[in-house]
Design a protein that fits this description.
The protein has 89 residues and is mainly α. It has a single domain (3-87), classed as Orthogonal Bundle (Trp Operon Repressor, Chain A), CATH 1.10.1270.10. Helices cover 80% and strands 0% of the residues. The chain is built from 6 helices and no strands. It has helices at residues 3-14, 18-28, 31-48, 53-60, 64-76, 79-87.
């Protein structure tokens, strides 16, 4: 793994509050990038709840291409799935 990427992951692990995370993301990303990530996270949670692609597209306005990528990551990856589990506790 690239050393700089690893350092970024470590930086995220240092955040303790929503406010700290918000401040860091505002400095790190554009508002559009943060909104795109938020849309993908919302779509992953909707997929986990059993919503269909059409329902998710209508609820979020996400493109079918992006939703397909989120769905693939949700099905075959573990990042979304693990965080969905943690956030539903």
């Amino acid at each position: 793994m690239d050393h700089q990427v690893h350092e970024l992951y470590q930086a995220f692990l240092q955040l303790e509050t929503v406010e700290e995370c918000e401040a860091f993301l505002k400095d790190l990303c554009t508002i559009k990038e943060v909104q795109a990530m938020a849309q993908r996270w919302h779509a992953a949670r909707l997929l986990a709840s059993g919503k269909t692609f059409l329902q998710i597209e209508a609820l979020t306005g996400i493109s079918s291409t992006t939703l397909s990528r989120v769905s693939q990551a949700y099905q075959y990856g573990k990042g979304y799935r693990e965080l969905v589990k943690k956030s539903s506790r």
